[in-house]
Design brief:
The chain is of the alpha/beta class. It has five helices and five strands; from the N terminus they run βαβαβαβααβ. It starts with a strand and ends with a strand. It comes from Haloferax denitrificans ATCC 35960.
Length: about 140
């Protein structure tokens, strides 16, 4: 059904909760899992994030991705990883298109009200604009 599954991660406990669902789906479909960490470089973060901070975030992204790739491979799942810079929802959608992804699986942090409006939701943007199905996993609080 799905040959390529994209799992965008941010190193949070919420993202970790999507992992069992993605690995189970990958086993059932004999699919490759693409683990993607996006270093957010959008204008909203420009005042906070400088060159050395971006490099630190990129190193952290590589650590997170490497760990998840290793965990997938230990389960016998073909797993590849990538760290990219940019606006998270744009990078996720571009990566999905570039790699022929059949489904994107993402955790949702469950923000509501003002917090959701102020912080936005990468998952919500991906759900609204993706050309492929998006599996969302509601993270426990």
């Amino acid at each position: 059904m799905y040959d390529e599954i994209l799992l965008p991660v941010d190193g949070s406990p919420a993202a970790e909760q999507a992992l069992p669902h993605v690995f189970d789906l990958a086993v059932r479909c004999d699919a490759t899992v693409h683990v993607l960490f996006v270093v957010n470089t959008t204008r909203d973060n420009a005042g906070i994030v400088g060159g050395t901070v971006l490099e630190t975030l990129e190193r952290e992204g590589n650590r997170v991705v490497d760990d998840l790739v290793e965990r997938g491979e230990r389960r016998g799942i073909e797993t590849v990883g990538a760290v990219r810079r940019g606006a998270p929802h744009d990078v996720i959608l571009d990566y999905a298109t570039e790699h022929g992804v059949g489904v994107i699986a993402m955790a949702t942090h469950g923000r509501t009200g003002v917090e959701r409006v102020l912080l936005g939701s990468v998952t919500e943007r991906v759900v609204r604009t993706a050309s492929v199905p998006v599996l969302t996993v509601r993270a426990a609080e």
